[in-house]
Amino acid sequence: MLLDKIIKIIKSNIEAARQAARDYERPFRKFEEFEEKQQQKEQQQERQQYEQQRGQQQRQQSSNSTAQDKEAAYYAALELSKGADYAQIKAAYKRLMKQYHPDRFHGQPEKQKAAQQVSQKLNEAYEYFSKKFNL
C-alpha cells in the first residue's frame, strides 16, 4: 500500500514534469515556427525578385535583338551590307526609289501596288538611318 502510494506520487510527478517540459518548450516551438515562416517569406521574395530581374533581362535582350533584326532588315531593303555609311545608304535609296517608284508603273495596278509597298519599306529604312546618323 505504501509502495503503491509512492509509485502513484512518482507517476504523477513524472506526468507533471512532462507537462511542465511541454509548457516550457511550447514558446520555443512557436518561435521556431515563426522563424521558419519568415525564412519562407524571404525566400519567396528573393525568388520573385530574381524572376522579375530575369524577366527584365529577357525583355531587354528581346528588344535589343528586335532592334538588330530591324536594322538588318533595313540594310537588306536597301540591298546593302551591314555597316554601310550614310553616303552609301543615300545612294542606294535614290537608286532603288528610281527603280521602284509607283509612278513608273502607271496603268499596271498590280505592279504599282507592289511598287508602293517596296517604296514604303525603302522610305522607312531611309528614315531610320537618317535618324541613326542624326541627319
From TrEMBL:
This is DnaJ domain-containing protein. SUPFAM superfamilies: Chaperone J-domain. Residues 50-61 have a biased composition (Low complexity). Pfam families: DnaJ. Residues 31-68 are annotated as: Disordered. InterPro entries: DjlA_DnaK_co-chaperone (IPR050817), DnaJ_domain (IPR001623), J_dom_sf (IPR036869). Residues 31-49 have a biased composition (Basic and acidic residues). Residues 73-134 form the J domain.
